[in-house]
Amino acid sequence: MTVSTTSARVAYSGNGATTAFATPYPFFATSDLVVTQVSAAGVTTLQVETTNYVVTGGNGETGTVTMVVAPAIGVTLIIVRSVPYLQSSDYLANDSFPATVVEGDLDRLTMQVQQVLSLAQSGPVLPVTFAPGTDTQPIIPLPVHNKVLVGNSGATGWTNTAIGDLALATIPVALTSPTDGDLLRFNGSNWINTTTLSAAVNEAKGADIASATTTDIGAATGNFLDVTGTTTITGLGTVQAGTHRVVRFTGILTLTHNATSLILPGAASITTAAGDVAGFVSLGSSNWRCTTYTRAAIVPGTAAAMVGDTGSGGTAGIVPAPAAGDADKYLTGAATFVRPARVLLATKTPAAAASVTFLAADGLDATKYASYEWIVEALLPSVDGADLVVTFSTNGGSTYLSADYYWSYQTAASSQVDIFIQDDVSNAAGEGAFGTILFLPESGGRTRLQSNLGRQNAAGTSIKDTAMGGHTTTTAVNGFKLSPSSGTVTGTIRIYGNTR
User: Fold this and answer.
1) Are 295 and 276 in contact (CB under 8 A)?
2) pLDDT tens digits along 401-437
3) Rg (alpha carbons) of the chain, rounded to whole number
4) Collapsed DSSP state (helix, strand, coil) of residue 441
5) Nearest to 7 by CA among 65, 84, 62
6) Which residues 6+ apart lie within 8 Å of 346 measured at CB?
7) Main-chain dihedrals φ then ψ at residue 227, nearest 5 degrees
8) What are the start and end residues of each CATH 2.60.120 domain in the chain?
9) What class has domain 209-294?
10) Which fold would CATH assign to domain 343-499?
11) Nearest to 158 by CA among 168, 176, 144
12) Dmax of the chain from CA atoms?
């Protein structure tokens, strides 16, 4: 035979199934092979022939190592040829030339040389500048427990030295009363202990994680990551308490609130949107708390910055967006928009005005308000002793009805061109009309009013006037007008709407 390869070692990765492993190099005896298993943790275990494996082949040829138990996944099987450093042939003088024996011995010698070369290549190598026979041969001492090899002062070898005896003066360290939790920071000349960093810590973005029932952000490769997909999330995995993660969602999914394992703001589940960002902190034992949640659709500095979902109602703990018609409503603790029972709609301040009107532009809206209350504050007519009358409009104030009114003032009743609510109003300073007028729209279009006004007459006598009235029209009334019988009026009227 010939030795045509320098290889004397082969390694295989276990798969839990394969048991037969070829040796691609020749060997003589089965004992020439050394078989070792290396676990995933790096632990080596020497295998025993017949107990752990059997060998076929050899006698100068290649062969096969067959394991009794297939090496598991993660285990490495190493087969090394190790020929004994012996010469067992005995040559007799004057015998015929034993070509086969000589070739076998030369093959064995070649294998032994290859083994020595492998050992030399596996150990420390002196630089090419080292001159054997001239330079001092460096000596490596036998190992000593808890000591390290340190080059000696003459640079001729190594000595075993305790770590505490190392000369650390060459390491620029300036520690000052170090305490638990301190950081080690290089300040440009020395390593110092500190509790703060003087520069930014630039972190890499972690790999994306697909959403799952348990989306293990604790195993993320970075503190900032994207969560993809639309699968509902009920847990975030296990990692030590205090670990922070910032998560950006790329799609719509549900974060399910749990009072122990996934604590969300407002104790309510959240439906994400693409671009939403949430901050989480681990509480340990697979428990997490969401510390921040920012909607991608929010524009900072606007009212929309408070919007957490669409439409009124909303989820507890999230501010709902107002719906159409919610402009004059307020938000309740139940996260719904409601209109106050009584709303100030308009403040009229006529100054020598021929009349005071109340129209849709002032807030008149029969769909929102069941009635309207006018608070009259010291309304002075320009003509002393003028009367006050009311008329209705059914076309938004373009014209006012001029017939078919009915009213009762004190005890008198009539059918007139307007509703008489007060007569003989003084225009002296500090006098005039004051009190309330209540407008009550009826179903079917009819509208009534009731007034309770006080006044001082032209003679200076204080009088309380009560009146009621309405109109026979069945068309919806959408405008009111208060006018003096002559001249103009000046003063203040506050108009309130009573919510339906």
Assistant:
1) yes
2) 988 888 887 655 555 787 788 888 888 877 788 999 9
3) 50
4) strand
5) 62
6) 358, 362, 363, 494, 495
7) -105, 120
8) 209-294, 343-499
9) mainly beta
10) Jelly Rolls (2.60.120)
11) 144
12) 169
